[in-house]
Amino acid sequence: MFQRLFGRERNANRAITDALYAQIVAAARQTVFYSDWNVPDTPLGRFEMLSLHMYLVQHRLRGEQGVAAEVAQVLIDEFFLDVEHSLRELGISDVGVPKRMKKLAKMFYGRTSAYDDALEQDDRVALAAALARNVMPDTSNWPQASLLANYVGGASQKLAAQSTESIAAGTVEFPPAGAA
Question: Where is the Ubiquinol-cytochrome c chaperone domain (predicted)?
């Protein structure tokens, strides 16, 4: 037991988590989202893109057992630790962080439900509407929502085609945004 907690296996797991999380962050930071599709390049806009990509990986790993389930849990933990760290970097006080974290967690899990429904039904119109509500809540018309919905649908399919073993070993691949 101590070997697992403190030994080589823990370091290997940390390396896998770090690699997966870096790939998720890189996918969320694709320039086309912000430059061409008008996702706000703000802390909240970046949270939306990171949340979306984290959701896609969580969606892919849902129902998996063993190592894949552990990877999914460690990734979501890492995501929320990163969000908390970002809040602190933005100057949110120790007193304010828990309240903001609760709100952001509620936002994340609320979005997963809307995205799940649309993806399960392969309904790109509903997906575009959900994305527009979340990414551009103050805009009544966001024409690029359909582009993002198509990307999300394609990313979900690409992730579904990836082997669980590959993901659990530290490799997750997203399609390039705007490459359709």
Answer: 36-174
